[in-house]
TrEMBL record:
Segments crossing the lipid bilayer: none
Domain AAA+ ATPase residue range list: 34-176
Keyword field contains ATP-binding: yes
Keywords on record: ATP-binding, Nucleotide-binding
Pfam short name (any one): AAA_lid_2
SMART domains membership: AAA
Top-rank lineage group of the source organism: Bacteria
Single Gene Ontology MF annotation: ATP binding
Annotated family: Belongs to the MoxR family.
Gene3D superfamilies cross-referenced by the UniProt entry: Magnesium chelatase subunit I, C-Terminal domain (1.10.8.80), P-loop containing nucleotide triphosphate hydrolases (3.40.50.300)
Name the record gives this protein: Magnesium chelatase
Length: 316
């Protein structure tokens, strides 16, 4: 399988619906082949739902969406045992988590209790309802969205422990002038979503998930990853740095970056390209630090300060 060619086809298909987001599509694909969950942040109307639906269609996967609201219950997410009057017995009804791609829309609008109902699902890829455990399909990823402009208006900020469970955070920017013009022309008559073609099968995704684990990482690149992580733990503007979970996530994402570029080894540039996506949301800044910079700016400064090793990734 020529992964670069097929990924190019995937970006072309999703580009029919979401214009100018090739880098975002690449990152979501890397998350998918690493069983990683995504926190998608953007203002309303930038195509977050369409992006998730389009991605599911191009891999022939199931798609479910949950609109998170303050009155949403944990059972609305995972499912319930309900009494069927006709059969006079309790029956299991699994919630929308039984899917391949789950869109948790505006996750920060739900109460902490409902937010936490996703934790077992995200970490264990299973749900437990009244003592009965059900495994979820594979692949399975959660794409959670939140609106940054309403972070203090009737919302419940995700705690640091839950933020750390997201493999990466992606921010969707407004389209450029030319991208938005192309979008208007594309959507003028009808939605191009119905014309999307399947590029990958679920079996191919499962096969890729195993292959990406074999991408080689040299000692120099491992040390580079650890140097970045260690710097987050001793930086003057950071109260709490990256956890070991974040270290492993950065390693796996760098492997994914190398894989989609048809390489059998990770380079320092792979690490540098994905580090902000993987680590910025895991940082807790000090009060003084947060007044000067945001998480992304602090992460950028760390990447500039940590010495980059000579690219010897192919050497074993």
């Amino acid at each position: 399988m020529n992964i670069s060619k097929k990924l190019s086809q995937l970006k072309s298909e999703i580009g029919k619906v979401i214009i100018g987001k090739d880098e975002v599509v690449e990152m979501i694909f890397i998350a998918l082949i690493n069983d990683g969950h995504i926190l998608l942040e953007s203002v309303p109307g930038t195509g977050k739902t369409q992006l998730a639906k389009s991605f599911a269609k191009t891999i022939n996967g199931l798609f479910k969406r949950i609109q998170f609201t303050p009155d949403l219950l944990p059972s609305d997410v995972t499912g319930i045992q309900f009494f069927h009057p006709k059969h006079q017995e309790f029956q299991l009804r699994i919630g929308p988590v039984m899917t391949n791609i789950l869109l948790a829309d505006e996750i920060n609008r739900a109460t902490p209790r409902t937010q936490s109902s996703l934790l077992e699902v995200m970490e264990e890829r299973q749900v437990t309802i009244d003592g009965e455990t059900i495994s979820l399909p594979t692949p399975f990823i959660v794409i959670a969205t939140q609106n940054p402009i309403e972070s203090q208006q009737g919302t419940f900020a995700l705690p640091e422990a839950q933020m750390d469970r997201f493999f990466m955070q992606i921010k969707l920017d407004y389209p450029t002038f030319e991208e938005e013009k192309k979008m208007m022309q594309t959507h003028r008559t009808n939605s191009p979503f119905s014309r999307l073609n399947q590029i990958f099968t679920l079996d191919e995704i499962t096969q890729i998930k195993e292959e990406v684990k074999n991408i080689h990482i040299s000692d120099e690149v491992e040390d580079y990853i650890l140097s970045i992580v260690q710097e987050t733990r001793q930086h003057e503007d950071i109260q709490m740095g990256v956890s070991p979970r974040g270290t492993l996530a950065l390693m796996r994402c760098a492997q994914g970056r190398a894989f989609i570029n048809n390489r059998t080894y990770v380079t320092p540039q792979d690490v540098k390209d994905v580090a902000v996506y993987m680590l910025a949301h895991r940082l807790v800044l000090t009060l003084e630090g947060s007044l000067k910079k945001n998480n992304v700016q602090v992460m950028d400064s760390i990447l500039k300060n940590v010495a980059v090793p000579v690219e010897a990734g192919a050497n074993k």
